[in-house]
Every structure is written in C-alpha cells, then in structure tokens.
Amino acid sequence: YTFYINLYCHTRSRITVRPGILLDPWTYDEDKLMAWLYIFLGPAWSRISRCLVGRPDNAIKNRWNPLLRCK
To answer: What are the phi and psi torsion angles at 45 (to 5°)?
Structure first.
C-alpha cells in the first residue's frame, strides 16, 4: 500500500506540480554542457540546473554520477 502512495506522489510531483520538467532522454549537447559547467562551477547542482532548462538538480546529479563512473 505504501508503495502505491509513494508512486502516486512521485508521479504527481513530476507531471502536475512541475510540468516544465523534461522527461526526454539526455542529449549529447546536454552532457557536454553539464561537463563544462561541472568543471567551471563544481558540484553545485542547483546552479547547474539553472543553465540546463527543464532538468532539476537531482536529475543532473543522477546523470553525472554514472557518467563519472564510465570514464
């Protein structure tokens, strides 16, 4: 039962409360911009998210960590 409540809240917050969030796959240009901003700003995810319109800071952090492990 708790799983369904959490899933509902997650879905509602992503679609209803913040409709501007991008759910599309990440593009190569976004990855390049994110890498450049990380070099310039460091791990300031909220500041980086201001430059990547439609990508929340948590999504940027979750994208960056696997990319860092691949290199």
So the answer is: -60, -35
What gap in Å lies between CA 48 and CA 39, rounded to an integer? 11
How far is residue 25 from each of residues 7, 8, 40, 41, 54, measured CA to CA in Å?
A: 21, 22, 24, 24, 12
- Show the CA angle centred on residue 35, arms to residues 68 and 41, nearest 5°: 110
Give the whole-angstrom CA distance, residue 11 versus residue 64: 23
Q: Which of 33, 14, 12, 10 is nearest to 22 (CA)?
A: 14
pLDDT string in tens for the chain (71-residue length)? 566 667 777 666 666 666 677 778 999 999 999 999 999 999 999 999 999 988 888 889 999 988 887 75
Instruction: Look up the pTM and report it.
Output: 0.70
Give the H or E element holding residue 60. helix 57-70
